[in-house]
Amino acid sequence: MKSNLTANELRNMYLDFFRQKGHKVISGASLIPENDPTVLFTTAGMHPLVPYLLGEKHPEGKRITNVQKCVRTGDIESVGDATHCTFFEMLGNWSFGDYFKEEAIKYSWEFLSSDKYLGIPKERLFFTVFEGDEDAPKDMQSYNVWRELEVEDSHIYFLPKEDNWWGPAGLTGPCGPDTEMFYDTLKLNCSDYCRPGCSCGKYVEIWNNVFMEYNKLPDGTFEPLKQYNVDTGMGLERILAISNNVGSIYETELYKNIIAKIEKISGQKYNEINKKEFRVVAEHCRAITFILGDERGISPSNADQGYVLRRLIRRTVRYLKKLGVMRSAVSDIASIVIEDYANTYPELEKNKEFIIGEISKEEQAFNKTINQGIKEFNKIVNKIMESKKISSEDAFRLYDTFGFPIEFTMEMGEEQGIEVDYVGFEKKYKEHQELSRTGSEQKFKGGLADNSVGTMKLHTATHLLQGALRKVLRADVSQRGSNITTERLRFDFSFERKLTSDELKKVECIVNDAILQGIEVKCEEMTVTEAKEAGAIGLFDSKYGDKVKVYSIKDYSKEICGGPHASNTKELGVFEIMKEESSSTGVRRIKARLR
Ligand code: SER
Q1: Domain of 281, in residue numbers
Q2: How far is the CA of 6 from the centre of ligand 1 (A)?
Q3: Which atom of ligand 1 is nearest to the CA of 43?
Q4: CB 182 within 8 A of CB 163
Q5: 95, 123, 499, 548: which one has the fewest Cβ atoms less than 10 Å from its Cβ?
Q6: Nearest CA to ligand 1 atom 2
Q7: How far is the CA of 213 from the centre of ligand 1 (A)?
Q8: Nearest by Cα to 568 from 578, 556, 579
Q9: Is there a domain that residue 152 lies in?
């Protein structure tokens, strides 16, 4: 293996390899997609190239190769393990209606295994192939090519759509079966079912070849594309860690200086015990710097990309506090990212002042909110010197009135040997829902226009909105009417006064937070009594027959409802309140949309 490879050598080796195979090198696109409403960020190299996958002519021809900066927030909870990032670089090669499975797989194999290139030992490489279903056949072609390359049968797995199908984050667009390549870390199998694609970390996905031959339509069906395309993506950070023979991406040169800076700031050495905190801070600082430093740079805000950025900065501050760093330090770490990447990504150096300025402003503002919460927390602690127990009332008040996250209360309690009545807190939370239910006697006049994807999403957003209003205003806010068109939702609810802009912002934030978390919208069938017991809100008449459907979105919402709904909150995009006004005495009206 090429063990001393640097990131830059790897980028060049990849681009040169595909240049030799007749590909034109093009530059990567901005992190902020243009004309693509399906995603907030460029999450893969394919986004900027969708028109060419659909058949438009690319000015550089049919074979393209590039390095694309990507942001994927879906993996945020995994950040801190050896390989997952919110920001990463993807090396890619593209065929727009030119070569297909055979060449693509052979190129990948050569690049991975040949000593001229990465030279990864063949016994460490594993592959997965699409097993087939009602939409597309079992991918025997890919399997046969791997076998022809003398890959052993025991190194190839057939897996279903969840594993071996790639399409855009939005619901529609070019997609197809893929074959994925994995590196065996030689860790022990986590269970009898451990195999490539298992999330335990034994097998690391390093490259994906997608064979885009379908277009997914809004009705969920797949139509053949005009041409057979190839879209491949290889994770730069992961390959570097593997070829450098280090245990995680944080041990590569890409993170060395960043980790050293965090050591200096925190006065701690990066070790087994604090590695999660170090890694989250390092990883997020890199993402923050790239988002702010993008050609279409954006500022922290309460919507769209700005909101993701805000969350990343706040999460970093939280993890820095875990490392005992109380002062503003994110911008200091960002300076190192800028220095390290300035040669490859000159936009960072160019936008340096903006990056540092925006981080500083945001960090200070957030520290102020958190500090208020901490003050209140300390008052409570003084009150409970003897019992050393924070009651559910206090925990709930911190959460409800001060916007202080329950995890902060839990974590700070733990640090001081104080118990937090979390079970009571949860109960309180549910009680409030219960209260609100008895207040809800009005009929749900669902004005759901039709079952199109857009209205379905707005319907899910309506549930989240109601949940958020109950959290921000009062638990007994109840629905007085709902109407959805293709453009917007309209929600009437009981409340006696105009909402402040701060309250509206909070409501938006909660809904967007639920969206960003990518929560599954669960539907269960049960009797009305069971639904009541489960704490669902909504109407308890027999309108829906004996059994009712209860839709729940984690602890954001649980409602009796006929549906239909989006299957996951991540499909919703960005929630935006357009207007808040009076509807009639004691009833307010909100109009909102999804973007
Ligand atoms: N689009 C595919 C992926 O992101 C391959 O580039 O995995």
Answers
A1: 254-363
A2: 23
A3: 4
A4: no
A5: 123
A6: 233
A7: 14
A8: 556
A9: yes
Residues in the ligand 1 pocket, defined by CB under 6 Å: 44-46, 92, 166, 208, 210, 231-233
For residue 2, being part of any structural domain is answered with no
| Residues 462, 513 within the same domain | yes
Burial 115-153 (b: 16+ CB within 10 A, else e): eebbebeeebbbbbbbbbeeebeebebbbebbeeeebee
CB 583 within 8 A of CB 562: no
Same domain, 444 and 460: no
229, 265: one domain: no
List the pLDDT tens digit at each of the 595 positions of the chain: 777 899 999 999 999 999 999 999 998 989 988 766 667 899 999 888 888 998 888 888 999 999 999 999 888 889 999 999 999 999 999 999 999 999 999 999 999 999 999 999 999 999 999 999 999 999 999 999 999 999 999 999 999 998 999 986 556 789 999 999 999 999 999 998 899 999 899 999 999 999 999 998 888 889 999 999 999 999 999 999 999 999 999 999 999 999 999 999 999 999 999 999 999 999 999 999 999 999 887 889 877 788 889 889 988 998 998 899 989 999 999 999 999 999 999 999 999 999 999 999 999 988 877 888 889 999 999 999 999 999 999 999 888 777 677 877 888 898 899 999 999 998 887 776 465 333 222 222 222 333 467 878 999 999 999 999 999 999 889 887 777 777 889 998 989 999 999 999 999 999 999 999 999 999 888 887 888 888 898 765 544 455 677 899 999 999 988 777 899 999 999 999 999 998 777 889 999 999 9
CA 231 to ligand 1 centroid distance, Å: 7
Number of domains in the chain: 4
Same domain, 511 and 426: no
**Whole-structure pTM value:** 0.69
- Closest C-alpha residue for ligand 1 atom 3: 233
> What tokens were used for 339?
């220095």
The CATH number of whichever domain residue 507 belongs to comes to: 3.30.980.10
Q: Are residues 69 and 169 in the same domain?
A: yes
Concatenate the DSSP letters of all residues of 180-216 into one string: EEEEE--PPPSSTT--TT-TTSSEEEEEEEEEEEEEE
- Strand 557-560: give its sheet, edge to edge: 522-527, 547-553, 557-560
Which atom of ligand 1 is nearest the CA belonging to 70?
4
Domain end marker among 231, 249, 267: 249
Question: Quick one: which atom of ligand 1 is closest to the CA of 44?
Answer: 4
Does residue 373 lie within any of the structural domains? no
* Domain shared by 263 and 242, yes or no: no
Query: Does residue 374 lie in a domain region?
Result: no
The reply to whether 147 and 188 lie within a common domain is: yes
User: Which ligand 1 atom sits closest to the C-alpha of 92?
Assistant: 6
